[in-house]
Amino acid sequence: MFRIKSLVSALLLLVTGLFSIHSFAFDMPKEFESMDTYKFFHSELFDGKGSTVTAVNTGNSDNIKSALLAEYPRWKGTHYRWGGTTHKGVDCSSLMQHLFNDSLQTRLPRTTFQQIRNGRKVSKNNLKPGDLVFFKTSPGDRHVGVYVGDHQFIHASKIEGVTISSLDNQYWVDHYETARRLELMS
Question: In sequence order, what E strands does the chain have?
């Protein structure tokens, strides 16, 4: 019974993903016009505690990067607001929810403390586009962004708003905590 539900869910998600990509393909930048199939799949996994954990496969890094960067202009410059969830103001973990949902059709938990518990740990020198990068900004605070390649990550900066920053910036080097790769569990 569980396998049938999983198969039906996966097929529905695939069909939904295909239609959603093709429904806005005419708005995509020219360099993305050749993307004729949707290569990202996702699955909701039960964590045994009554809640669902969403995971993404590692798929094609170029496609993941393209999907995230295609969504970025919608958020670029949006002011940082702690607890914010809209274009009027957004915090880092809510931005991750929006980016993953809108570009990869994947749901993430609401807070950095919940998001860091998803996926598996990945070393800083093995990052791939789509990996969540976490920073310990103070003893009780974390910050999260999504890696897009070339030592760059998208995040909601308290100073610049939603922006792309370098992991090589000394501030981020000093506060780097870990990275998590979200992938399907077999």
Answer: 42-46, 52-56, 85-86, 89-90, 120-121, 132-138, 141-149, 152-157, 161-166, 176-181
pLDDT at 176 over 70: yes
Mean pLDDT score across all residues of the chain: 76
Told to judge if 143 belongs to the known catalytic residues of this protein, a careful annotator would answer yes
pTM of the model: 0.69
C-beta separation of 128 from 56 below 8 A: no
Q: Is 42 a catalytic residue?
A: no
Establish whether 79 is a catalytic residue: no
Of the candidates 42, 79, 98, 143, the residue annotated as catalytic is: 143
Q: d(Cα 166, Cα 164) in Å, to the nearest integer?
A: 7
Mean pLDDT lowest among 13-22, 72-81, 166-175: 13-22
For residue 138, give the 3-state DSSP assignment: strand
